[in-house]
Queue: 3 jobs
Job 1
Amino acid sequence: MNRFEPNLRIPGPTSLPDAVREAGARQMVNHRGPEFAVLQNRVIDRLKAFYKTQNDVLIVTAAGTGGLESAIVSFLSPGDKILAVTIGAFGDRFAKIATVYGADVTKLAFEWGKAADPAKARDALRAGGPWKAVLLTQNETSTAITNPIEELAKIVREVAPEALILVDAISGLGAVPFETDAWGLDVVVSGSQKAWMVAPGLSFVSVSPRAWKAAAVARMPKFYFDLAAHKTSAESGQTPWTPAVAVMFQLDVALEMMEQEGLEEIWKRHAAVGAAVRAGLTALGFKLLADSAFASDTVTGAWIPEDLDWKAFNGKLRKLGLIVAGGQGNLKGKIFRIGHLGHVTVPAILNAMAVLEQTLIELGRPVTPGAAVEAAQVAALKSLGLAK
Ligand SMILES: *Cc1c(COP(=O)(O)O)cnc(C)c1O
């Protein structure tokens, strides 16, 4: 047991506000009864505001990956031509799900640490097709990059106007600017344990009228993840299968908090926190993984220097309560990642920077006490327009 209050800084599950945690302890209700229907309808209305959409939003009891799977099986058929734009491990996963279900997937992969290049996406769209769907990742958690989704979606509409645009927005939606309808996105997936400050267990999926048209003729095998069944149930305030009721209680409270803070304020807070982490890590001598023009404001990745003993370093961080994430895929052992989404403030991130700084000094590295915290705070203040 660690005596110190853990500072969980991984990109999901994220730490929860106390009121959200407590909401999960409430007595169960009948998931086919009136209380649940009222709860689900309220939650869906609030999710739509954060999605910035008039489309249906459905709640699936599953990890985010289940939401992605529902997006593939509900709208597509085996043999459909799909362009999967991938910039990291989660983009690869989305492509893999489509492949497993028999889609004809063309992968457009970019170097890890870079965003998708819209010009190359245009070339790839022109070179193949006819495309049934394009898979995009809004925020690639494995490489700490936010893709230019608006630009990418515009190009898809231009070159392949009929193609469905399916977006994995699991680690960005609810934290950074996002526009489902204004950007013309057909299916957008998110997950409760990321920006939403809720325990894992629920995935959210928005569905456009164009996507529902595709659902009517989609032939991929499906049962649990059939979104058409979810839509039918949602019309009477229900879900087709027993939902994660406790997580719904939490989501209701978290969305109320988010509504009180306001979408724009939430975006500003994440921008400030992201700037702080990047400046702090840089001041500590770390090299960042992400192309700075597309650096994510919800997660930051840094290279582990060759002369830093990662095990000793991470062990000391853990003793002081700071929990960070490692690398995924071919970045395993090469980078570490700090999650900064959901229930996170600038002072909380300054604390994480202080722990990193203290730990590096204890390991004998040439770090100036206070330098990283200062750099991080100045960056946050600049982002908030409170310093020059
Ligand atoms: C976390 C995450 C997922 C997967 O979510 P699970 O809940 O672990 O299945 C998918 N895509 C992105 C971008 C993520 O950050």
Note: Residues 11-12, 63-65, 90, 137, 139, 141, 168, 170-171, 191, 200 surround pyridoxal-5'-phosphate (CB under 6 Å).
Job 2
Amino acid sequence: MNRTDAEKLVNETCNELSERFAAIDDIALHNQKKVLDAFRKNAVQARHFYGSSGYGYDDAGRETLCAVFADAFGAEKAVVSPLISAGTQALTLMLFGVLRPGDILLSVSGMPYDTLTDVIGGDNCGSLKEFGVEFACIDLVNADGLNPSFDLEKIGKFLDENRVKAVFLGRSRGYEWRNAVSVSQIAQLTDFVKKVSPDTLVLVDNCYGEFVEKTEPTEVGVDLMAGSLIKNAGGGVAPTGGYIAGKSHLVDLVAKRMTAPSLGAEIGSFLGGYLPYYQGIFLAPQAAKNALKSAFLFAGAYKKLGYETLPSAEGDAHDIVTSIKLGSAEKVIAFCEAVQAASPVDSNVVPVPWAMPGYGNDVIMAAGTFVQGSSIELSADSPIREPYVVYVQGGLTLEHAKLALTETLRRQ
Ligand SMILES: *Cc1c(COP(=O)(O)O)cnc(C)c1O
């Protein structure tokens, strides 16, 4: 497609999305207030931005940051740390924090995200399986579609017949062909689980979900949720890190797993300081807003070209990701090359599929990002496998998303 046609398609799509964009603005305002209120309640001051060294006893920056995250998420407590290296580690801490030998973990949104496969069932790697935690999995109903939902009948039966310690769900789509599940669905599931089996915990992989809706899973009764700071919750500013938030006594257990059973959240220093983490959570509603608009823009433009895309402009979005079924490895690679070429950093390099740690297939990732691999910044990735879906997410500015979209269209 030539440049003029591509630019025209981008503008047309954008104009058609005006109502959707207004709804997204409304969500962002609501969430900005929540975050601002969390800053005010905890009286954040410049002194909190400085780091500490050694044990980090009484590190007011760390403690206040944790309190701000907890309040912003409507959770009782949170641990947030630059020392949590990725979302996978945050999720691993959440699982190992509360599960014990002999427990059963039940995933109710199909198989968890690819990098959790070894965490749950790997051999000779310190997996939950090796520590005697059993795992079972129930797929979503209508998993292959626009409106996936939890299979309450099967879940209820399983909970009746087994003593399940924790139910686990992934809010975002991962590398599946489906939309994310909504917070209202998570609320309904949580009510159901607590009714059938009051002692069973509900744990959520919240990656890509933060600030996409007006409520977070921890506001609707979920026990714990975890996520990455180089996605939504870091606002495109945090350079690394992760968080776990939820019920106070459970967050304490996670903190004990993170440091040591005798120490919990009472230690932890970070000489680099916390400024980008505070700025990040403050900007996170804005980053989620721009990413959501970018997601609808990519989905809308490719839909006009006849591709199957998720989300669709008619339905709400519950994560920041767009899926485009391109149908061939060549198209996926060309798409990722275009996104990389239209990036502010490393625009001169060409992404290639490779065997990334934690993934079963070769994966191609375009991430010409300031923070390495950040996917709240505009990025595109895909496991090289049928049905050759490219996943696009992030976009710190809508303008950047428009320019990158134009570049991908020019190369189609
Ligand atoms: C990104 C992501 C994770 C964690 O991945 P990391 O790369 O370790 O941060 C887990 N689940 C989902 C759905 C994700 O999108």
Note: The chain has a mean pLDDT of 96.
Job 3
Amino acid sequence: MAIRKQTAQQGTFLATHGESIIRDAQRELKSPARRLFGRRLLTLGGIALLSGCDLTNDKAVNTALRRISFFNDDVQALLFDPNRLAPTYPESMITRPFPFNAFYDIDDVPEVDAATYRLQVSGLARGKRTWALDELRALPQESQITRLICVEGWSAIGRWGGVRFSEFLRRAGADTTAKYVSLHCADYNYWTSIDMPTALHAQTLLTLTYDGDVLPPKYGFPMKLRVPTKLGFKNPKHIVAIEITNQYPGGYWENQGYNWFSGS
Ligand SMILES: Nc1nc2c(c(=O)[nH]1)N[C@H]1C(S)=C(S)[C@@H](COP(=O)(O)O)O[C@H]1N2
Ligand SMILES: [Mo]
């Protein structure tokens, strides 16, 4: 499938597969997974982020969400430019309080024990396989303020800090010519996967903090992969295992009909 191809081919991806993506979106609206989302509007428009429009307020976002549903050529060209950075924002624009979202209620957020926590790396990697939290905290950290866009039709701006995922993968000895990175979570087998160009993207961070403090449980303690070029559901929280692989890994939502690419 075209969505599994590498960065250079992503530019032409939507031009070729736009119709099937629209079909996917229509299927989403009918799928049983849709019901889990309650009455909130599901829109494919989340990927508007990636359009690089200047999404500085909710009105602009909504306009973008509407625009995207038409999938005109301009939007397509913007969306799937792999060199494009997700927009960043000033501190004054952070959404407070930042929303919580998962496929279960906030009361069911998993409690991960920091002392015994280990991140496992498997698959096509020759480096260190098991990482304790302190070892991850000792890696070079950076932070960014970006917008998380949920496929359910809301978005919010937040600040996350952590290790560049490309840096982590390098230290883990990952084979960066592999096609996919899959990410498995502590909460009831949630998982997702991204293509290697996205994993290596400069803004993809393995985050350990939210707004300057240790990432709280609701936002994914001990760690959330922040991928601002992708929809919210491709930003896994509570990651416990990372696999580098050439086999298409799918994901929790992806396997229920969400478009795997879901971003730029
Ligand atoms: N482990 C895990 N990660 C997850 C989810 C989840 O249910 N479990 N939900 C995803 C979805 S749909 C969204 S929109 C964001 C929400 O992140 P937040 O709670 O920090 O706002 O987390 C994503 N990552
Ligand atoms: Mo989401």
Note: Residues 188 and 206 are 20 Å apart (CA to CA).
